[in-house]
């Protein structure tokens, strides 16, 4: 069933679907399909430019400087009136505005900016590279002075500024620590001209800062315009998904499966250890799908009784995960997921495994491990064939030959273009949404008569006070 609630600029509809009958195991796994649909509320179809602070950071080698100047001239010339912006160049030094830290776009300012960006500096090959960590820290300092609702960095890099400490795989690296400081302060897109860059830190920047990463020609102005167009549709920079669980639920994980695949990290809510908050970002009118997985101990629960294991709340809308532990002997035959909820959950699980295998296959190929690449790409093809994800087959064909799709057999040729591999890694990260059928219609609202906390329509007991509804 679904719930609808209103936020400033957004109406939120929430539905949660799970199999009602489950096996009463000591470590029972319950999967639920969570769909959040946001619709625009209000007269405007986009946010005012005055609510946006934008930093455009251009980190390219000397051979790309002239193309970068032309692209920057086009990009700043198309900025909307009222937007606050700064342009950074080589070594994360400020290129524009010439005075002060922030410019405010208007016709006169755009003329000045189009002329001034011609002085942008390229990466100095005689000096150690500044590193992505430095660019992020510089952007963070700038955004601290501009407390606007939407703060966004567009990092244009051909890899010239990558430093040794930009190791996204190590949680103690300078880049990882700086990303932790930046998360929640601003969002970021990565635009990558050429193919001489290491994709791992670029993907880390986009994922941790909730943006997109993509390859681009040297004429990157359209990529900046696309990022800005997306920002102007944002109605809520951040929207938490709260999950409150019963004491017998040991673990709760939440994976966004559409429009992008990403595992969300929970943050415990102070003074309520059974309540977790998963932050999501940059909400515009759209639908997003999540796979919520609970691990519960059914040892002390009654059998055959509807039990609310968790409550999901988004923007004031609440839905419940309700299950019934089946009596011993009947569970094996009847606890299987069926119907629309079962199909959706199965597709989401398969899609998660498929994307992981595709990412691992491309990463192995980038490292020269052909045997592992063939195994992972083959697994991705087999799973894609199962759920008709044709885009995965197209991605694999860029680097390998599909011998047998249903069996997952692929072969990698003797020569693979490294640029195609790296560009594919960015494409996989930021694109290709998964399609699921529409959510069911809304049902009547339900609140606990004792503590007035919201509950799902099928709930029998309140998850907060424990009394019967």
TrEMBL record:
Pfam families: VWA_3
UniProt domain VWFA: residue ranges: 53-212
Superkingdom of the source species: Bacteria
InterPro entries on file: VWF_A, vWFA_dom_sf
Gene3D superfamilies the record matches: 1.20.120.1690, 2.60.40.3670, von Willebrand factor, type A domain (3.40.50.410)
Identification of the protein by name: von Willebrand factor type A domain-containing protein
């Amino acid at each position: 069933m679904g719930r609808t609630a209103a936020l400033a600029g957004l109406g939120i509809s929430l539905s949660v679907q799970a199999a009602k009958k489950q096996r009463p195991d000591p470590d029972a796994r319950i999967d639920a399909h969570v769909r959040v649909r946001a619709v625009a509320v209000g007269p405007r179809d986009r946010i005012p430019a005055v609510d946006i602070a934008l930093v455009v950071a251009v980190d390219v080698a000397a051979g790309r400087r002239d193309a970068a100047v032309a692209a920057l001239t086009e990009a700043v010339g198309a900025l909307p009136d009222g937007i606050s912006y700064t342009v950074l160049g080589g070594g994360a030094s400020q290129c524009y505005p010439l005075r002060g830290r922030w410019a405010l776009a208007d016709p006169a300012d755009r003329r000045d900016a189009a002329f001034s960006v011609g002085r942008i500096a390229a990466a100095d090959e005689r000096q150690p590279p500044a590193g992505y960590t430095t660019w992020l820290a510089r952007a963070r300092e700038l955004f601290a002075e501009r407390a606007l609702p939407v703060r966004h960095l567009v990092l244009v890099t051909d890899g010239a500024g990558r430093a040794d400490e930009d190791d996204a795989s190590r949680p103690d690296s300078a880049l990882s620590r700086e990303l932790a400081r930046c998360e929640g302060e601003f969002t970021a897109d990565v635009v990558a001209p050429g193919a001489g860059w290491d994709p791992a830190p670029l993907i880390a920047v986009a994922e941790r800062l909730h943006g997109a990463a993509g390859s681009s020609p040297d004429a990157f102005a359209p990529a900046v315009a696309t990022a800005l167009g997306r920002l102007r549709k944002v109605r809520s920079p951040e929207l938490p998904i709260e999950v409150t669980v019963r004491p017998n639920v040991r673990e709760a994980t939440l994976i966004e499966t559409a429009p992008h695949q990403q595992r969300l990290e929970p943050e415990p809510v102070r003074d309520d250890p059974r309540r977790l908050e998963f932050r999501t970002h940059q909400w515009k009118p759209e639908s997003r799908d999540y796979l919520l997985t609970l691990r519960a101990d059914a040892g002390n629960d009654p059998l055959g009784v509807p039990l609310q294991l968790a409550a999901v709340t988004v923007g004031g809308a609440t839905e419940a995960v309700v299950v019934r532990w089946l009596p011993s002997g009947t569970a094996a035959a009847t606890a299987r997921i069926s119907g629309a909820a079962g199909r959706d959950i199965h597709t989401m699980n398969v899609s998660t495994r498929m994307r992981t295998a595709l990412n691992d296959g491309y990463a192995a190929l980038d490292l020269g491990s052909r045997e592992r690449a063939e195994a992972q790409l083959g697994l991705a093809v087999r799973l894609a064939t199962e759920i008709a994800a044709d885009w995965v087959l197209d991605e694999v064909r860029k680097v390998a030959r599909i011998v047998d799709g249903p069996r997952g057999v692929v072969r990698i040729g003797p020569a693979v273009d490294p640029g195609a591999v790296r560009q594919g890694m960015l494409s996989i990260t930021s694109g290709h949404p998964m399609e699921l059928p529409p959510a069911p219609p809304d049902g009547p609202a339900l609140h606990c008569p004792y503590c007035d906390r919201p509950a799902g329509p099928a709930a029998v007991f309140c998850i907060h006070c424990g009394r019967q509804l």
